[in-house]
Amino acid sequence: MSISKNLEAVEKRICAACERAGRKRDEVKLVAVSKTKSAEAVLEAAEAGQILFGENRVQEARSKIPLCPGSLQWHLIGHLQSNKARIAASGLFRMIHSVDSEKLIRALDECAAVPFPVLIQVNISGEGSKEGCAPEEAAALIEAANQCRKVEVHGLMTIPPFTPDPEKARIHFSNLRKLRDRLQKETGTPLPELSMGMSHDFEMAIEEGATFIRVGSEIFGSR
Ligand SMILES: *Cc1c(COP(=O)(O)O)cnc(C)c1O
Q1: Which of 7, 56, 201 to mutate to test ligand 1, by most ligand atoms within 8 A of the CB atom?
Q2: How many domains does the chain have?
Q3: Is the CB of 197 under 6 A from ligand 1?
Q4: At 64, which CATH number?
Q5: Given 19, 38, 157, 165, which residue has the most CB atoms within 10 angstroms?
Q6: How confident is the model over 139-160, as a mean pLDDT?
Q7: What's the confidence (pLDDT) of residue 127?
Q8: In sequence order, what are the residues at sequence separation of 6 or more whose Cβ sits closer than 8 angstroms to the Cβ of residue 214?
Q9: Which of ligand 1's atoms lies nearest the C-alpha of 98?
């Protein structure tokens, strides 16, 4: 297994999905999810040209990121407790994809020194993972962030329930896009970003409008 070969293969599949959907390649940003993997693995991906990486745990990221090239960009994609907001918002990450409560929004706003982009994680299917707010709660979270000085909501994120057939994830991706369209109108907040799609189903997500896909095992191997 070679990380650079894997990245090449993922890139080809991203391009093909963009083409099928009539989208430009630069509308989709690849977040290489390096959770549980070493700084050496990150370096290998970086040497192959990957700049944007995702981690799901603050503690792990905090020890790994300083061992990696300083030119890389890091996003937090996993659940964050408000008592870790300070670490997450003080320079470790450029963006948090997994914001799902007003308490966390307020905690991040208190700690961030510069404008801080976040995505609201929505449990769009209402099943599976308990993480993410209910679709009905998303508007209130966006309004709460609009009252903040530093936190800025740039869009939505979701993790659909796992199904062996990735085609079954499509409905959840299109529902997230529709929710985004509706929230944009209702709140008057631009929400350009949709973070959806993982190793198993990123092509479907691209076809349904993803702007960030979060891919781990297809790049770094199974965990
Ligand atoms: C682990 C993880 C991913 C990547 O999962 P793969 O199936 O390995 O691509 C994406 N998003 C989140 C939130 C994750 O925790």
Answers
A1: 56
A2: 1
A3: no
A4: 3.20.20.10
A5: 157
A6: 97
A7: 83
A8: 31, 33, 54, 77, 97, 195, 197, 198
A9: 13
